[in-house]
Amino acid sequence: MERNSSKKRIFFITGIAGFIGSNLARKLLDTLDNIEIIGIDNLNDYYSPSLKEARLNLLLYYSNLKFIKGDLANKELINLIFKKYTPDIVINLAAQAGVRYSITNPDAYIESNLIGFYNILEACRHSYDNGQKGVEHLVYASSSSVYGSNKKVPYSTEDKVDNPVSLYAATKKSNELMAHAYSKLYNIASTGLRFFTVYGPAGRPDMAYFGFTNKLIKGETIEIFNYGNCKRDFTYIDDIVEGIIKVMQKPPQKQAGEDGLPLPPYAIYNIGNNHPENLLDFVTILQEELVRAGVLPIDYDFESHKKLVPMQPGDVPVTYADTSALERDFGFKPSTSLREGLRKFAEWYKEYYLK
């Protein structure tokens, strides 16, 4: 997708005020010419809407971005957007996120992650009506949570993932199954991306690194689950965005099978750092970077603010991405080190909250 394409390309990004959506939109607007981005977000209060609005404010001065406040579960609205703007590429990042929240608030996940995604699939399907060119590529967010209680590491997209340990994970696996059916039935090119623990500046406050920082600032105790014996494949936001952009430009090929019917133009990739970090090491690096950035004082007593606790329901002991397919097909592998990423987060946190 070169900067100087003659025809204006239309991107529809759902969840555009979210952590990944806002960073993706900004990168596209800064690097591609002759594009228009239509973004939708319901700006719900799962976490502070002011953070979502701050991300959105960075986008609103671009003249080729149009923001629509609305909900994916509103089928009429989604159909209207597709009819009016006829997007070339759809990037579905809107979803009710979080494993623990799904245990107490299941309704939000069914509405956003299942009904909302169904509305996107239907709109993509009807974008080809009456011989229209329609959507070239649907890229959607899945999650490393789909691997559930998988014992084999690293996690490969070839693994069987039929044992979700949270409703959130079950909805993400459902998205992959629904997309496969629509790819097969209606020849919609779709790619699912299983993201692994995305972090960085202006990230989600419900994520561990952000929550830990909020608590340490207040002098509260942070809880480290599974007595610190958890490993996470932390992936920096810029790597996630670069991965999405590479994938989005290369939809799975449409081709016929032996029976003359279309083979589903469907793909799934992991986007992770391919390098799991022990939670205790992660906390050590985080506290060092918070001190370095001046968020916490040099003499902060971390030991008295740390508590090792058992595993939480819905959690898994390790996440570890096999990214060989991503490297093979796109020549791309995330490369930001945890220290580098947490340093940028700590510097942003000081600027945003402690100014």
From TrEMBL:
UniProt entry keywords in alphabetical sequence: NAD
Amino-acid biosynthesis as UniProt keyword: no
Classification via InterPro entries: Epimerase_deHydtase, NAD(P)-bd_dom_sf
Highest taxon, organism lineage: Bacteria
Residue intervals of the NAD-dependent epimerase/dehydratase domain: 12-272
SUPFAM superfamilies: NAD(P)-binding Rossmann-fold domains (SSF51735)
The UniProt record lists the keyword NAD: yes
Xref: PANTHER family: EPIMERASE-RELATED
Protein name: NAD-dependent epimerase/dehydratase family protein
Organism: Holdemania filiformis
